[in-house]
Amino acid sequence: FHFDKEKLGQAEKTELDAHFENLMSRADCTKNWTEKIYRQTEILLQPNPSARIEEFLYEKLDRKAPSRITNGELLGQYMQDAAKEFGPGTPYGSTLIEVGECERRLGAAEREFLQTSAISFLTPLRNFLEGDWRTISKERRLLENLRLDLDACKTRLKKAKVAEAKAAMAPDFHETRPRNYVLSASASAAEHELRVAQTEFDRQAEVTRLLLEGISSTHVNHLRCLHEFVEAQAAYYKRCHHHMQELQKELGRLPNAFALNSTHPVATAGSASEGVSSPVETDTLKIEEVQAPATGTRKAKVLYDYDAADSSELSLLADELITVYTVPGMDSDWLVGERGNQKGKVPVTYLELLS
After folding, report:
1. Keyword Membrane on this protein (predicted)?
2. Does the domain made of 18-253 have the CATH classification 3.30.450.40?
3. Backbone dihedral angles phi then psi of residue 308, each to the nearest 5 degrees
4. pLDDT, tens only, 211-222
5. Where in the chain is the domain with CATH 2.30.30.40?
6. What H or E segment, with its residue span, contains residue 237?
7. Comparing 267 with 114, which gets the higher pLDDT?
8. CATH number for the domain whose boundaries are 298-354
9. Nearest 5°: CA angle at 331, between 329 and 336?
């Protein structure tokens, strides 16, 4: 009722000061962006909407969600199971075992990252939205209702005073005393209601103001949580990078993993003494005699450092550019690399081929 009268212009509106309005605007902005960041972080950590709904239901039922295996762990398990079928002693089987173990480690690192991020970042944001913000909204609604009551009291007092002034301008000599007495009593009651309404409004405005000023503390808290989220991400990607580097090294050491021709066993003194099987037979292909083809050479960027296993290979430094090409009889996992006057075999997995 009060709100309708204000909308129709029959009641004056009590304005809040500029500082208070700024506090409310800042609080609304904080709520809106916190909600967007929270929702998108949820999607980042768990892209599967069905899984998010399941976790939400478990949370509402106050039950712990069952532990979910990550996609990386599942892939790793499949690879290792396949290796048992293909034969763990074969080049493909032994490689599947190593890659599968790496995928399981990556999956475990991902699960730990998800758990850490949920605790250190998602939970504080959700606590604000479901706790502090609900309290602020409740107190703001109460303040608005009290403001409408205050406006109505102001309007009643104004009408009572206008009626009293009109009566004073045109007195009725036979009924002056009783009419003035009633009008004065009406104005007095309206003034009392206004004082009570003003007191209640001022008290509620102060409570609401203190809650709104607490948004600054919310920003400080969320800033700390954001730093923790970044640390968790950095630690996760660092672990992933470490696991992948270890996998690259392990694949480079696997015996016969890149053997070109199993019908011609490698029997050079150099490779035998180092326990490394050369991917290209030195008795059929001597690196120093290999010539670059007229066409078919490409530039390649080195992704990781690589230490040559023997004199037929070329050591590499990450980020350098080399010329590469293939020659008949070479394993597809290796190329011939040239850097100036230096030449040697290089593993394809350590390169990014450029067009």
Report:
1. yes
2. no
3. -60, 135
4. 999 999 999 999
5. 298-354
6. helix 215-253
7. 114
8. 2.30.30.40
9. 80
